[in-house]
Amino acid sequence: MSDLEAFRTQARAWLEENCPKEMRDGAVGEEFVCWGGRNWTFKSEAQKTWLDRMASKGWTVPAWPVEYGGGGLSREEVKVLKEEMRRIKARSPLESFGIWMLGPALLKYGTHEQKAHFLPPIARGEIRWCQGYSEPNAGSDLASLQCKCEDKGDHWLVNGQKIWTSYADEADWIFVLVRTDPKAAKHDGISFILIDMATKGVSTKPIKLISGKSPFCETFFDDVETPKEHAPGVNAVVGALNRGWDVAKYLLTHEREMIGGGGSGAMGGARGIGEIAVDCLGVDETGRLRDAILRARVAETEVDGWAFLLTMERLKDEAKAGQGMGAKSSMLKYYGTELNKRRYELFMDAAGSEGLEWDSERSEDGKLVKGWLRTKANSIEGGTSEVQLNIISKRILELPDA
Amino acid sequence: MPLILNEEQEMLKESARGFLEEKAPVAALRKLRDEKSEDGFSRELWKEMADMGWAGILVDESHGGAGFGFVGAGVLAEEMGRTLAASPFLSTSVLAATALNKFAGDAHKQEYLPKIATGDVIMALAVDEGRKHGPKETALTAEKSGNGFRLNGAKTFVADGHVADKIIVAARTAGAAGEEAGLSLFMIDRKAKGVTADRVNLADSRNAASIRFENVEATGEDVIGEIDSGYAALEGVLAAGRAGLAAEMSGSAQHVFDMTTGYLKERKQFGKVIGSFQALQHRAAHLYCEIELVKSVVLKALQDLDNAFGMAGVTCSLAKAKAGEVAKLASREAVQMHGGIGMTDEFDVGLFMKRIRVAQEMFGDGAYHADRIARLRGY
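^ inputs. structure came back:
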């Protein structure tokens, strides 16, 4: 038996023994996610047990090094673990911006002390992070951000405002892009700094969206004094001072791959658009969807969805073979989010007037209509579609600046 | 299986590109067109391709071929698409070789596969009878007559039909047009009594023919696959052809896109290179994404043909649908972004636009294959 098969056998046995029955319903979606953090209320005892057991194995972050709370698994082993979790329909034990974003940034740019201090609480779901990037006047042009961070000897003094901070009102800590050198060129005076949300002067205000939900906040920093070191040797700034843009760019690449992945629902585990449309509208005597024009549009979108899924697969295989993904993540972000918007438009077309119901029982509290509205943000957050097209033009096609 | 080319396939791609750029550039197609070549391709060049193992790329080594499989064949088709190389590659080395490899009896294999590999026989597949692709719509009849069959009917849009030595014909031995059952495949000599093959000049200046069959006699030994149940074989051969055409269109799309971005970087208007204008940048970037999707679906279809031939029909349809639509977009954007020069005969972009139009129509356009996928997915 190969090492990988031996690992599969062990993982299967361990999951079988340790994954609570209630966590094996394959449930995905906002209401089932365990985000963790100081303010987290577990939805059930099983949710807590599942998190604790997975964290004790380091399997909430299976690819991270063991010394920082991870599982120390190889890429192949992580894939096997995911397959085994899918096999028993295990829910994800923990999701967070710490896992998706800060973790990868610290692993690449952090010092050993920073990693040892911040990563294990993320892995255990004890600290929940949020991301402070956009500002009211710095959206697509993120590098024009103005949030001020002054050196006051033993501490930093932060003043300014962030916007579109996901779940800031529920987060414990924030990683923020701040301007540490106002005289430098716009990309050169930015630093990536870590701040405790409990610090005096930090406040948040949820933003109500067109879906009626408030997943984003405004975050204010009013004379916030934050220490230069959060513990002996644990610098508050990640990477070199004034080089925060490098860290930010690296993280945006991660974020793009993550958001772009949403488009793959077209042919992945989620139900297909055609299948849902048939449920809504039925088929004619030849077995075709009872709306010929909608059917054609659905088919075209499914062709694109399938092609997109294969492209994600191909780019991952290329990355594994050492060709790297680089600016191609902008393609995934752009195409995946635009595709997801197309899919939801078609869901709405198929659902007709029933799909417009906002809070009825049969609509599950307007799940579809609110989901449709939510997708409109996909092509804005994490860099708009237009910004992705600019990146592709410049970095991949090497077209000149205007 | 990872969705990337292996080392051997990469090497094939590189050597094919070098060879085609030297021996079969777009200028070669232009020359065939302007000289009104009767064959529509260079027999010398085809012999050279055969010597390099291209004609027998799908023929296994025991029959004298290169045994490179469909991914290898697709790599060649893609490179040929980049230079619009005219040759009987699709008709003979993809369609006929697949029909023989997968569905013919040993006698046919022994006789013809080695000749395909050496470039000594040219074959064509005759399927369609109307203006749109429809294998089930086959009406050409093969009626029982004595110990054999007698074929009557007409075929159209047959690639290399007028230069082929042998024509593989989809014929109806039972049932009626529109039915899957009752189809059979016959291998007929083009010079047989009652066969009339006329070249039809299409927009792409490549080879296509209309073929009439009048009381053409055939025997049971001329059948490839099973009598009355030839539809599965026909679909198998068409799947390979669709993937081949998709690969070719991928190459053509990539090439016109390269020409276009090259032009955007060099053409100046209003005192700037036009590639600095965002209106053009975003269209180019979008097209880039679409072409990346095409590369993925084409490779997937070719890998499926190699790994699970009988199951590959649906990904071949996916590849044909996506590659056709994107290649058309690439050629339209190429002409538009080149402006006036893109409309001139002297410039190559128009030749790509014409070939792409023909290739996307052959064996089913985007709508045909999207419909097929929708049916397979239950709507």
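Residues 102 and 233 of chain B are 8 Å apart (CA to CA). The radius of gyration of chain B is 21 Å.
thumbs up if we can close this ticket
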